[in-house]
Structure formats: C-alpha cells, structure tokens
Amino acid sequence: MYLRYAHMFLMEKKVVLITGCSSGIGLGLAVLLASDTCQRFKVYATMRDLSKKERLLECVRNCHVDTFEILQMDVTDQHSVLATIEKIKEQRVDVLVCNAGVGLMGPLECHTYETMKNIFDVNLFGTISTIQAFLPGMKQRKTGRIIISSSVGGLQGIPFNDVYCASKFAVEGLCESLAIVLQHFNIHVSLIECGPVSTNFMNNLHTWDPSDGCLQCVDSDTRSLYAQYLQHCKTIFQDVAQDTDEILQMYLEAIEAPLPSLRYFTTQFFMPLTKLKLSCAGGSEYVQAMHKFVFSGTKTEEHQ
Question: If you average pLDDT over residues 137-159, what whole number do you get?
C-alpha cells in the first residue's frame, strides 16, 4: 500500500495547457485540475488579456504553486502561440485543451465581414494554430491528448447562428480528420459537444439587436422570426442550461479515459434532432423539425 502511494507521489504530473481561461469553462477546468488533491496536473491557464486574470487567481489562491501558472496567449496571433511554448518549464504539453471561442448571433445580412472573420479567426484558425504549435512535440513523444470545446452548433445548423455554426462545423471536420491520422502517434482527439451552458458565453457573444441600426438589411418577416428565436433561446436556457461543474466532468473523462471517445455529449436534450439529421441523409426532415422546434414550440417525442 505504501509503495503504491509512493509511486503516485513520484509520478510525473500531466502538463495541461488550456486556452480561454478568463471565464466560463476554461476558468472552471483550470481550477478543477489545479485543485486536484493528488496534484496530478500542472496547469498552464492561458488568456488573451491578462487584465482579466483576477477572478481566476482568486479561485486558485489555495492551490499548490507547482500545479498552476497563468500565461498570456492570443490564439489569433501565431507569434503569441509559439512564444508560449518557450514559457513552459516542462518543455512539453501532455493535454492540450482548445477552449477559446466566440459566438455570433443574428440575421446573416447584418454581420460585417470583419465581425464574421473574427469568428473564424478565433474558433477555427485559432484552434488550428494552437494545435499546429503543440502537435510536433506530441508526435515526437508518441503520446498526447487534444480536447476541443465544441458545440451542438457544430453538428447541426441552428437558426440565426449561421456563421458561428459554420466555424464549429469546420472545427468538427478538422478534428475528425486529425483523429484518424493521429491514432498512429497514440494521440487522442476529443470534442466536447456542449449545449447551453450557464456561463458568460451568451453575454459575451456578438449579437444583433433589432432595435439597433441596419434596418435596411433586414425585412420585417426576418425581424419577427429573430424575435421568436430570442424568446426560444430564453426558454431553452431556463429549461436545459447546464452548470459548468456538470460540463467539466466530460473534460475530466476525456483526460483520464484509457481510450477516450472522439465526441462527448454533455446533454441528451438535442440528441433526437442530431439523430434525425444523421438518419435522414436528404436533410429535409431535419430542416422541417428544427423549424417547428424553434418557431412553433414543437418538441420531439424525447423532449415531451
């Protein structure tokens, strides 16, 4: 018994780097791993703006100094990402968590090119740049885990989330393709498919307010549909939004599982629509079902 605990004590910590740690899931995961009672992890919590680090520091103030460090890293800046590698004392990352992400909601006609480009720069190209930076080391060591904060919106189209869904669909294709090749290197890729989460994500997303300008871009029918969608969102968040702690268990499973899955679904609420999309290849059934679900309040059998 003593030898077993001695072995645990001497075991090398898993080095975990997490992006987007100023709030929400990134912050929660950093705290969870840094607070591990067996001190199994060394966590590098990164964020674009270090002026937002105080909340995270407050949450980890009782953690052991060897289990936690905050680094500045902007996933949209390749120089920033590459510079981060040099700051990691262990010269390796065992678990890479790509969590940085932004949302965009509203009629497509209202989004500027710069706003849409920013969504892809963070959600897709930021993820790609981060993986590119840390993947060679994982390949060389023939081990590693890459965990991506994805979304139900990466598997099924959601009204008035066109650009956000497009960015997440791209991330899904990226990771699914990578997962096949990286099996050869004993590197596992996992996507955490989140539904509505009780974080600041909804408050921080870029959204279009019908009372603001750009009226000439949007017809009255679309404005009415968007108002219905916002009410639908409010209802969904009231009914099914999950606490961050519940979501974090999926990340922990992806980190600890001997053979992690490609996808982890944090909620079963949207599964009927997801299965419908996969089972009816033509797509019409899904489009009709989603339209009814959002704009008519119609629920699938499993939701009733």
Answer: 96
Query: Buried (b) or exposed (e) across 115-149, using 16+ Cβ within 10 A?
Result: ebebbbbbbbbbbbbbbebbbebbbeeeebbbbbb
Q: Which residue has the tokens 């969904």?
A: 236
| pTM of the predicted model as reported, rounded to 2 decimal places | 0.89
State the amino acid at position 14 in one-letter form.
K
Q: What token pair was written down for 244? A: 């961050």
CA distance 159 to 167: 14
> Is 164 among the residues known to form the active site?
yes
* Terminal C-alpha separation, the chain: 51
Residue span of the structural domain in which 173 resides = 2-269
Q: Where are the beta strands (DSSP E) in 32-120?
A: 41-47, 68-72, 95-98, 104-105
2, 5, 113, 164: which is the annotated catalytic residue?
A: 164
Q: What is the CATH number of the domain that holds 37?
A: 3.40.50.720
| Separation CA 292–CA 232 (nearest Å) | 11
CA 93 to each of CA 84, 175, 226, 234: distance values in angstroms, whole numbers, following the listed order: 11, 18, 43, 39
pLDDT in tens, 196-244: 887 555 555 555 555 555 556 788 899 999 999 999 888 888 778 788 8
Amino acid at 37: T
Task: Give the separation between CA 202 and CA 199, rounded to whole angstroms.
Answer: 7
**Residue type present at position 62:** N
User: Is residue 32 located within the same domain as residue 18?
Assistant: yes
User: Among 152, 202, 148, which Cα is nearest to 176's?
Assistant: 148
Same domain, 110 and 253: yes
